[in-house]
Amino acid sequence: MTNRAQSSNIGLVLLLALTITGAGVVVGLGSSALADVQEQTSIDRAEHAMTMLDARTAVVGLGEGSVQTVRLGRGDGDYAVESESGWLRIEHANYTDGETEEIYNASLGSVSYRRSGTTVAYQGGGVWRQGNGGTSMVSPPEFHYRGTTLTLPVLRIRSTDAASGDTTATIRRSDELTRVFPNESDTYDATAEPYENPVRNGTASVTVHSRYYEGWADYFRTRTTGNVSVDDDERTATVVLETTSIVGAFPLPEKDGSVQVRGVAGDHSVTDFETSIKIGNGNGNGNGGGTANNLYVSFYVEEGDRAYEAAVALPTGIGNYCKNGPDDVDLRMDVYYHDESTSEGVHRWTDDDISSISGPVQLACEDGNPVIQIDFTSTAQDLTYGSSSVDEDTAIDWDALDDGPDPNPTTFAHDGDDGENTTYDYGDDQNLRILTRHYLAMFGPDFKLRVHHGPGNSGTARIDVADSGGVLRYDTIEDGSYITYLHVTENNVTVALD
């Protein structure tokens, strides 16, 4: 009886001990879970408050109001306003002869909330969350890319402050909005040309140095198709956007030099392609009575498997062309195209009796000097399919590329604005505008249009590059990897914490 009673008492004690221990564990786990919930709630509240701060700062910074207030709320974390945290830089690289212009470089500043290992921060018009899992975007920054236009109002925090607990932020405008680009009062260092749209040549890049650079990089990747890179050591994110290059007048490049063509829209996008090429006598001066014998000039493209060339040749025996009339002589023009990825041979188009004194392809005279004028987008010049007549050394060795039978017939299997599809047999005619627009469409959106020229088997005529040039216009692509218009402003605010 006694042993049995003792066993019962021991069991009761053990049961009570287990109950107390279990209750302690439950209380401990519950307290930890409660603390986690409280911390998450505090961080969620901070995210909401920072999003409100983002919206109110945009109102003030973009000039729609002078003062705004936001209650950031209460919590166990700390608030801080910093004026020198992070910076943003805009560069225009290779805008001329390899030169790079730093268009803008200034600090961004930030307003942050920190609790334990998590930070929620406003910077550059966006809200970012940083913790053990890295950086994520809560709301997007003021970086707007649509079509080929980048609009970037740089919202800068120009004050410092700190607070904790129940905190209210007061946002005030600091200085007036400053226009960065376009801005006619600022000029490129190397060219003295004003900061103006459209942005031509080279690339434009935006670099952000920040604690939250990973979030900036993710945003750049999702909102543009530009080239995005990060530097973990420097804590920077960069997006590079190509310009749509030259649209309009261009100087004639040196022999085998090129005009960079970028951002050409699909289909038949070339609207205007004309050249005016003055003939010199080899010493850089106009011919002024020298010979124009046996000279040829061509424009050509080689990209991947595809090649194109349009060549115009002058005849022999024309002597001092401009002093003698000029007399009407026959010019010759060829257009060639080949795609090595197909089984077809070279496309050849020609006209061997073009009048030199009128029309879209002619040998004009200006101040006594011969000038080769070519309108590649004219409908008034026809060429015949199936043969060639320019026997000088063209830029591309078309006979070497002729590894298959010349296509007869061939079909322009390209939907454009010129009434295609169209099938051509030997002897069929087509105007120069359609040929130019069709073949150049094979190379978009980026390619180099090169120039080639020289005397044939005899003659001393030379191209006077300095006094020659052309016009090239085309519809540009609407794509996130290109930039045509850049709109940048600096918008300063202060934030006080109470």
Automatic annotation (TrEMBL):
Domain DUF7308: 261-475
Entry superkingdom: Archaea
A Pfam family reported for this protein in Swiss-Prot or TrEMBL: DUF7308
Location of the region described as Disordered in the Swiss-Prot/TrEMBL record: 401-420
Protein name per Swiss-Prot or TrEMBL: DUF7308 domain-containing protein
